[in-house]
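Supplementary notes (optional reading)

For those who missed the lab, this is the record we used. Protein: Bulb-type lectin domain-containing protein. Length: 268 residues.
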Amino acid sequence: MRAFTKKAGAAAAAVMAGSLLLATQFSGTAVADTAALTQKVVAKDLLGPGEWLLPGQSLTSGGGRFRLVQQHQGNLVFYDGTKALWTSPTSGRPGAKATMQKEGNLVIYGADNKPLWSTPTAGNPGAYLKLPEQSGVLVIYSADDEPLWSSSAYIGKLPSGHVLRPGQWVQSHNGRFKLMQQDEGNAVLYDSQGGQRAVWTTPTAGHPGARSIMQRDGNWVVVDTNDKALWSAKTAGNPGAWLAVGNDGQVIVYSGDNRPLWSSRGRK
């Protein structure tokens, strides 16, 4: 698979249907009344800072192939034609609405104006969401056009409470390294320099459907389809810990206050 570029067209399509858990932080920004929100809706292929999608409203790619629709039943859905490629885990919340917040995260608010779900991209003022022309991957870019999040991958980190399902990955910011949750069960770190070379793996192959979880207790765990732990980094007891894929090719679990707890090159 090719690394992300500044255009969404360089990424491979993958579905994260309902796989993202609730992000750990929301901005808490108050939501204005619906009449006021209608002044900020845009009908284009980009959702900029402070712009909204209300129930039934959508963005459409330039060629018309891809759409991002804020469904009346609450979930935000990314379509290729009539096929859903990705959806937020907010179905069953009629009246929900989505906004690209000025501090950088995409947030879905319920009808009661409480946050339901968010991308882990706060702290990036001016970030924007862009529909692709061909790739089938929805991407949030920073103000200087660097990818921060996509519907198929995390960029740089896997936050606390988030999951990698088969076919999903965490990619280093420089695009060279990719931690992929494989279909056969193991999480593999790839180096794209000179080809696609595996440089590290969890010992969990042979368990199709397994997924990686950055648990809220701080432990990075690979579990099977019955939620049985197959392997872990043994970092429990550190609530808020998160996983990073660095530009140097290391997978590191950091504590909530950014202390290294575990590394793919040996315990820290």
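If you only remember one thing from this example: The chain has two domains: 8-146, 156-263.
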